[in-house]
């Protein structure tokens, strides 16, 4: 996921680096021997390197968000289509952590991308989240579905019905929301290099003056059972080892006294990105929070060369739209309806 209006950090598309703020150990704040790295956005806000994902397990999310905030997470990623925004809002309130201390991001879904629908879609999220603003608003995919109540509008044969507007129109409507104060930063998700370039070339002048910050979604890959079940990716997700079994991550984990999961998360952090692991289990939440530590350059490089070029999140066939067209990576399974 790419956050515009942000301080840049390395992305597949941008080599420009700016200041990565490394706060000193926050042992005092949350009793953990870990850093609390943030990147400074051009809005003036800081986006934490370690965040919390909320996809799936709707019934458990209110409690999970409450617990993750109490444990020390300050970045939460959610989306309209996850159907958990209400639970996320309740979890925030329950935690007692002041809203202004939390970086909260959500995503518009593809049936609300008509420019006339964008503001109402934001209002819907604000109501669900019970907040007056979001720190980040993203377009979930570059695919535009037909307008209307149906999140997954299909024809009589089950084929997705696409809308007539384009992601560029949607983006321009999103830019207008910045003036309302209800959105502090904008981003996109699941966009290819070319699609991002289109926004840069044809979006506003404002956009070209901004940098890019990258958030890694599904930072644990096929640890999420969803990828082993969905038609998009079940073949590849079953044949590929999980990161907990990775010989390299196990080896490096011994060096840093960390688990393979923590090594994978720390790799993202050391590359200047934000990572947003999801968990509803206390010990995992706490373990994930202790994944912000400095790694030696040679180890960062070794993990980089593990690149399997696999892609678990690829609903191209179902969405009737070729996603990630110009990005490297094995395409996910080409069939299977998921929603
Ligand atoms: N923009 C997009 O299109 C997009 C797509 C996918 C994901 N996302 C975002 O990214 C977030 C994270 O991705 P994800 O939910 O797909 O999966 P993930 O965070 O990569 O992995 C989650 C899985 O790993 C397990 N896990 C978490 N911490 C662990 C630990 N320390 N040790 C062992 N297992 C651990 C979880 O278990 P339990 O659940 O049982 O605790 C869950 O099964 C999402 O929640 C969502 O916010 C965005």
From TrEMBL:
Its EC number is 1.1.1.307. It comes from the Eukaryota. Gene3D superfamilies: NADP-dependent oxidoreductase domain. PROSITE patterns: ALDOKETO_REDUCTASE_1, ALDOKETO_REDUCTASE_2. Coiled coil: none annotated. The record marks 107 as: Lowers pKa of active site Tyr. Residues 55-200, 208-304 form the NADP-dependent oxidoreductase domain. InterPro entries: AKR (IPR020471), Aldo/ket_reductase_CS (IPR018170), NAD(P)_OxRdtase_dom_sf (IPR036812), NADP_OxRdtase_dom (IPR023210). Signal peptide: none annotated. Substrate binds at residue 140. The active site is at 82 (proton donor). GO terms for molecular function: oxidoreductase activity. SUPFAM superfamilies: NAD(P)-linked oxidoreductase. Keywords: Oxidoreductase. Catalyzes the initial reaction in the xylose utilization pathway by reducing D-xylose into xylitol. Xylose is a major component of hemicelluloses such as xylan. Most fungi utilize D-xylose via three enzymatic reactions, xylose reductase (XR), xylitol dehydrogenase (XDH), and xylulokinase, to form xylulose 5-phosphate, which enters pentose phosphate pathway. This is D-xylose reductase [NAD(P)H].
